[in-house]
Description:
Strands 1-7-6-3 form a 4-stranded mixed beta sheet. A 4-stranded mixed beta sheet has the order 9-16-15-12, with no helix packed on it. A 3-stranded antiparallel beta sheet has the order 2-5-4. The protein folds into 3 domains: about 1-125, Immunoglobulin-like, CATH 2.60.40.60; about 130-230, Immunoglobulin-like; about 245-285, no CATH class. The chain is α+β, with helices and mostly antiparallel strands.
Amino acid sequence: xxxxxxxxxxxxxxxxxxxxxxxxxxxxxxxxxxxxxxxxxxxxxxxxxxxxxxxxxxxxxxxxxxxxxxxxxxxxxxxxxxxxxxxxxxxxxxxxxxxxxxxxxxxxxxxxxxxxxxxxxxxxxxxxxxxxxxxxxxxxxxxxxxxxxxxxxxxxxxxxxxxxxxxxxxxxxxxxxxxxxxxxxxxxxxxxxxxxxxxxxxxxxxxxxxxxxxxxxxxxxxxxxxxxxxxxxxxxxxxxxxxxxxxxxxxxxxxxxxxxxxxxxxxxxxxxxxxxxxxxxxxxxxxx
Length: 288
Ligand SMILES: *[C@@H]1O[C@H](CO)[C@@H](O)[C@H](O)[C@H]1NC(C)=O
């Protein structure tokens, strides 16, 4: 019998190559159902979808075999012809972030020997929550940070796909920041804090903001991280130039002065100086 089955399989493979048989040929069954269904759940019926006679299934020793060395994911109830889930299927474990999760199984019938393909299309359910790798995010911000300054926040990750992956972010109500959500070109979203009201160290030394990432499943799932902001004193002794003054001053100073002082500027957080000034300074000195 094994031999016959092997020969039939070879013949089918050969015909497949020869005629470029489509993925689901006539007589094959294709079933779409959600992951994580209970063992024994009915996902289809051999009589209805594959045109087989239920009364003959037992006599023909109908059985499901895994394709290759894979696992058996479905089974047949010989008295009803129902195709049932053989074991719980975890889509993320099998297919990760792939948008299509397709498993093939083989239905074997004897007398006469017949092989039919069963294609299982596993759909994602929202069984995972968004998660931030770091539960605590720390920022040091100078009180001289200007309105509109942006601080990129870590992206939340969700093992699910499509609408069941992270769709939006929000932050707890606070006086200083609003949240900007950005869609990445390759899919996925992240957010950034945008300074709306300038920080004042005399009033606030630290700020704690709860960041929430939410997916679009039903029901929705979410994950949180806590953003800790430490407000730093602006250095009162540091010279505050307007852009024009800075160009004037820096264009007058010597190379020696720059060598002695550049660390003072370059090692500071960028937010303390306008980017334009930073770039201009560099430019002026590089052409000297
Ligand atoms: C097959 O289906 C019948 C009717 O639903 C049920 O009574 C029986 O337990 C099932 N057999 C198996 C092996 O699942």
